[in-house]
Specification:
Elements (H helix, E strand, L loop, with lengths): L8 H8 L3 H10 L15 E2 L7 E12 L7 H12 L6 E7 L7 E3 L1 H9 L2 E6 L2 E2 L2 H7 L2 E4 L1 E2 L6 E6 L3 E3 L2 E3 L4 E5 L2 E5 L4 H23 L5 H9 L1
Helix pairs in contact: 2-6, 4-5
């Protein structure tokens, strides 16, 4: 398991108060990874933009279409959840759909109700989900490729191992930040400093926006502002 960012409740709350593009911009300032990695692509979407930002430690599961020799879904799911409690809260479930050619909603009201009782704040999957009204009332954030009416017949293939969802490889314990703009992974080694850096980014962006709003704006003046 990779290094886990050991953040206090106040530090997590500070990250939750920031939108994900600003988090992504702040991470770039530390120059700890290529700017083209560390976030999910547009193949999944935020189902409940109105629920706002979530921050949590990833717990990973892979689901597949259940074959005749596979264990019952409930048995495999309970075993997976037992291991999830080894990670700190808040938690975010990151689920890979290994049988996308067999349409099925991986998550619905019952599974999500259980997740909320175990301090999960969101589900991120490249599969599909259902029970939108009920899960919205739970306050659990959904990120998914779409919505399907039936759960089909799925089971857990593996858990607590790295998964690749929407172009991002996620390991158990990774710190994730997500909102209507998408999902970004926060490197553990800088996690404690990202919120403060994000405030610096906001201030710098504010100066740029003020320059653009100036009634005396011209491209030449703005070029001098940007380039010196």
């Amino acid at each position: 398991m990779p290094e886990i960012a050991d953040l206090s409740p106040d530090q997590l709350a500070a990250l939750r108060a920031i939108d994900s593009p600003t988090i992504a911009n702040a991470i770039e300032e530390f120059d700890v990874r290529d700017r083209r990695v560390g976030y999910m692509d547009g193949s999944i979407r935020c189902i409940y933009p109105e629920l706002g930002e979530i921050v949590g430690y990833a717990y990973t599961v892979t689901f597949k279409d259940r074959g005749p020799d596979d264990p019952p879904m409930r048995q495999a799911w309970v075993e997976a959840l037992e291991h999830a409690l080894e990670l700190p809260a808040p938690r975010i479930l990151v689920a890979r759909d290994a049988s996308k050619d067999v349409p099925a909603a991986l998550f619905g009201e019952i599974m999500c109700t259980m997740l909320t009782r175990l301090d999960f704040v969101g589900v991120i999957t490249d599969g599909t989900v259902r029970d939108l009204n009920e899960v919205q009332e739970l306050g659990l954030q959904y990120f998914a490729s779409g919505v399907i009416v039936s759960h089909g017949q799925v089971t857990v293939e593996s858990f607590a191992t790295p998964v690749t969802v929407a172009g991002l490889t996620v390991s158990p314990g990774d710190l994730l930040h997500a909102d209507c703009n998408g999902v970004v992974q926060i490197p553990a080694e800088i996690a404690a400093d990202v919120a403060a850096k994000a405030e610096e980014v906001r201030q710098d962006e504010g100066k740029l926006l003020d320059a653009l709003a100036d009634p005396a704006f011209t491209l030449e003046k703005f070029k001098k502002f940007m380039l010196g």
